[in-house]
Specification:
Chain lengths: 282, 317
Amino acid sequence: MSGTPHAGSNVGLPLRAWRIRRHALRMGQVQGQGYIGQALGVADLLAVTWFHALRYRPTEPDWEERDRFLLSIGHYAIALYAALIEAGVLAEEEIATYGVDDSRLPMSGMASCTPGMEISGGSLGHGLGIAVGMGLGLKRKNSPSLVYNLMSDGELGEGSTWEAAMAAAHHRLDNLIALVDFNDQQADGPSTATLSAEPVDAKWAAFGWHVQRVDGNDLDALVDAFDEARAVTEPRPRVIVCDTRMCKGVPFLEARERTHFIRVEPDEWGQALDLLDAAMPS
Amino acid sequence: MIASLDAEGRPTIAAPFGHALADLACERPAIVGLSADLAKYTDLDVFARAHPDRFYQMGMAEQALLAAAAGLAREGFQPFATTYAVFAARRAYDFVCLAIAEEKLDVKIVCALPGLTSGYGPSHQATDDLAIFRAVPGLTIVDPCDAVEIGQATRAIADHPGPVYMRLLRGQVPRVLGDDYRFELGKAKMLRQGADVLIVSTGFMTMRALDAADRLAADRIGAAVLHVPTVKPLDTAAIVEACSAGGRLVVTAENHGITGGFGEAVAAVLLRAGVTPVFRQIALPDAFLDAGALPTLHDRYGISLRAVVARIRAWLA
């Protein structure tokens, strides 16, 4: 069985990204809230991850030979649920259960709740260190599987992130790919004005990583970056810094004053879905 | 340093944890060892020399140490992560709590310098680790008494599927318990009977309790010793039974600050059970402690043999 289940699909990446945005908006509509700005911004990155790069079996989330995808940023759970639904790991009907009591889709990602959720992120700065351990473990098992860790620009302020970055390079973890969603927004304001990580690519390079920085809403650029990250042979970890635009795909939300937790009025969820539907890729 | 905990002339065993883990790893391929630049000072170097390909040096980075241990456990390995107790409990707490315990991962956290076993002052004295880790749901906590128990407990915690924190005596570790002693995870052991006072002790304070019982016997004071090496979950049945018997003074003894440690845990067990003996605690004060020579500090803070005997005599007077 092919490891990348949708590799031969006729559904293109633009449509996958569009559907991920649509699933996320529908979940936000259920609760009247959610980290929808981040979900819309990272949808293209998730589309490329789950429909171009990742090896997995939708009906067997614990398949030993899968690539591991860690959501360090637990509050992006709404985005990963959308990708898991699109990938067939979760049923589309579960959208109605987003954030409700005893749901498999809590507002912050928890490994014990959701198939396909490898770790419980949310206490930021955890994912990369856990990814280091999984990378070491996979090498012990002589496994060709890769570990992807999705993290945020705000998370670059956590010291543990850089402990893990040093460890990954020291242990020559060429099976580890970090994905940084650089949307320049964290809780108290723009990331670059809160605790700037710039020059971010130079930092990763100085820590011994193979670094790429791309437009995180450019599907072709993302595909090329993932292909390069997987193709290079040098024995060091890889990072793809993805500059993304929050709320991408819903113009009136993109134009709204940027905040970490975008407020969406009750009647605006439907408007956002209408706008998205009108822009459905062919 | 550790030998100075003990009476002169008592036999010791070198690096009981390191040797026990190295031996155990020969039969269990899932075991791996990690250290944060303290392998030599946690006796993990014995394991590292025996199984160099299964040892991971994480450098002076305790958050990465415990996060990586979580990741290795997720991939099916059984990591033994070692550092000093202060660093695991204070600096890397979030990783013990969320990355390991909340996920019920099979990680063993084994830490040297528990309580007052270093004269380097508060930066190295983990007088709060039990208080911190007792609050972590599902985390098993073990405080062994001596070299014999450390060897047995290493195997026992490996048999237990789930997160464990074990306090470690390192280097030349005194041997106090006999060949017939058997550590059982979660079980207290009545080591000595006595009619006048019951000492409920954990960790190396059981060594003190046994020595104190000898001294008190010379004064015709009968001291019983209930050794409780598993601090969480507590063997509540054994504690309640022992403390209910005979109207004895009950004294808890621990190598830890008086706030939130073993003694308070025992007190809560007894109150919840409606058992209310005359109750006293031997523990370190609720203070940042001095630097200095260990025998001096143990005497100053009431956990030396002399101090333990004097305090029990005074409480019985």
